[in-house]
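ESCALATION

Customer reports they have been waiting on this structure for their group meeting. Please prioritize. Original submission:
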Amino acid sequence: MNHQQLTTNNQQEIYDVAIVGGGVCGTSLLYTLSEYTNVGKIALIEKEAEVALINSNKNSNSQTLHFGDIETNYTIEKARKVNQAAVLVKNYLLQNDLSQDIYAKYHKMVLAVGKEQTAKLKARYQEFKQLFPTLRLIDRQEVAKLEPLVLKERQTDEEITALYTEEGYTINFKKLSQSFLDRAVTNQEKTINVMMETRVTSITKQDDYYLIQTDKKTITAKTVAVAAGAHSLLLAKSLGYGKDFALLSVAGSFYFAPELLNGKVYTVQLKKLPFAAIHGDPEVDNQKVTRFGPTAKVLPMLERHNYGTVLEYFQTAGLSVKAIASFLKILSDWTVLRYILLNLLYDVPAIGKRLFIKQVKKIVPSVKLKDLTFAKGYGGVRPQIVNLNSKSLELGEAKILGDNIIFNITPSPGASTCLQNASDDTTRLINFLGHNYHFDQEKFLCDLSDKVATKIKI
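Update from on-call: job pushed to the front of the queue and completed.
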């Protein structure tokens, strides 16, 4: 279905909400506004020819729905919050998209190797088991049954424990974004204009409205939600917001191997590092291919593989004394610096694979160098916020609220929380618009509740 030009091109038309960015966060917001509010006129502006071609693309992210159960860098508080959000996405998939090949369900585990990791994982299980009733602590023998290659050629005296659950979801977030869009535009009672291949050049405030200048025309809106990844901070700064922030753009790469794993296998997160631990899992659309990663290298770009965004990165990050001092302070931590330098080498031909295989062997000891292939063209950019006042990384969600405008820079943990983020932003937008507008949040939660989802067979 061609979603372009669904309404008139009248430049004087005033939208209630304009959404900048057609990734999974922008499209989930469009879906929520269309399905659960009385907002009548909505515009979605996306610079690419299709939705979700950048960070929400299948090639650009770790294709994982994060619940917080086996992510060992999550506190119990964050896991509870992330779980509530991820359940919304899971239930949307179970209720609406069983036939659309959007996701695959596998088991998943986080693997502890050695006495120290095992002790920590056992303690974690005691803390997390009530929040995640399906989570189990399994021993070496059960790991061997579920994932034979995890134990093959591993030292027999090595202590092995894992936290395990069958609730592992691998998602094609591009297809999920398209699903959100398709469902949103079917609402015949609303004016929804989806403008693809339309680049926003500037946003300005004029009286009670925002003027969104694009390379095709000017859009007028009462409220705006910017969900454009790293570009969100650039647009925020153009309006005077977010001046105390810079970006550390972390790019993730992956390696492919033949079918080695039956489900997702994570390693224990390293201390001090805000980057995801290496894990392996089957591709969402091809179980015979196992993907390992992500690596994490720092690149001065707002978009991976798009060198035209290098200048935009420096415009966003700034070259002020505070920015330079902040980066130097972050990199002065040897653990962080060593990790960043090592990850830079993983992408280097000839030596990268030889270094990365050491990480893969932590999961599959028998893997051979010939088994690994660099996933060329895969990997996106995760913008990590740098607070210029504290000179430190701000982990988790980065959202800037302005005068009737919202900037989403990096919702945490990304696509897994897209529907919760959409609900939160819908509430804010309705408050911006005033008492004549309402959001049926009760119906939103009822539609995506576990009670409804349990009626659906997986």
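Sent to customer with the following note: Residues 138 and 162 are 5 Å apart (CA to CA).
Escalation resolved.
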